[in-house]
């Protein structure tokens, strides 16, 4: 009798549930689109507010939509919202078992009422802010369909473990991070990332560009810490993925 056939495939399908049932938190996947020299975005001086700068190809962006489709929630920070005004919707066109929850970490609750996220809110937008934020600002967002949750923090930074715990309480099993350099670094430094997926474009941005993750070093060093690393072509780009924490271990 054959034993263990398809074990790895079966585990992969249940990674999120395994992380949630063991810890009460979702499985966390960090996704980033990077230049060939491992940078996240051009220098701020070369960008306009709200200007979208695509590093990767249409094929890679379609793959990101499939990743969103496979996640229960997608998370970003207020810095990314203010710089890029993203929508963060699942545009795969595939049927979902539950709506994609869009999550923003915004300690001072600066989320603009006219942002794409707020204007498209339909019970699918959750904003985490600090405990000290006034009720007036909270009420303004709640009046337009945004849910606001307060969590503890320190020095203007929210406690990421508490954020994950709250998402787990809402039965979010899988969380996709689409963040800037600060949050990428914070999640990685705190040891809260389970899986990493990096899309490398052929573009070179140079040493003055926005780094991949503050306080972590280059993504090439991070790859050395990843297990089960795979590399594959997605259009003209290269996708590198691997595991930092075994959700079954």
Question: Would you give an account of this structure?
Answer:
- It is a single chain.
- By secondary structure, the chain is of the alpha/beta class.
- It has a single domain (23-243), classed as Dihydrofolate Reductase, subunit A.
- It has helices at residues 7-13, 15-23, 58-69, 78-84, 116-119, 135-142, 160-169, 181-189, 219-223, and strands spanning 27-34, 39-41, 73-77, 101-105, 125-130, 147-151, 153-154, 157-158, 174-177, 195-200, 210-211, 227-234, 237-243.
- The strands form 3 sheets. A 9-stranded mixed β-sheet has the order 6-5-4-3-9-1-10-13-12. Strands 2-11 form a two-stranded antiparallel sheet.
- Strand 7 (153-154) and strand 8 (157-158) form a beta hairpin.
- It starts with 6 loop residues before the first helix and ends in a 6-residue tail after the last strand.
Under the CATH scheme, the architecture is 3-Layer(aba) Sandwich
CA radius of gyration: 18 Å
Strand order of the largest sheet: 6-5-4-3-9-1-10-13-12
Dominant shape? globular
Strand content: 25-35%
Number of strands: 13
Quaternary state, please?
single chain
Please outline the major beta sheet: 9 strands, mixed
**CATH topology-level name:** Dihydrofolate Reductase, subunit A
Layout: helices, strands, pairs:
Elements: H1 7-13, H2 15-23, E1 27-34, E2 39-41, H3 58-69, E3 73-77, H4 78-84, E4 101-105, H5 116-119, E5 125-130, H6 135-142, E6 147-151, E7 153-154, E8 157-158, H7 160-169, E9 174-177, H8 181-189, E10 195-200, E11 210-211, H9 219-223, E12 227-234, E13 237-243
Parallel strand pairs: 1-9, 1-10, 3-4, 3-9, 4-5, 5-6
Antiparallel strand pairs: 2-11, 7-8, 10-13, 12-13
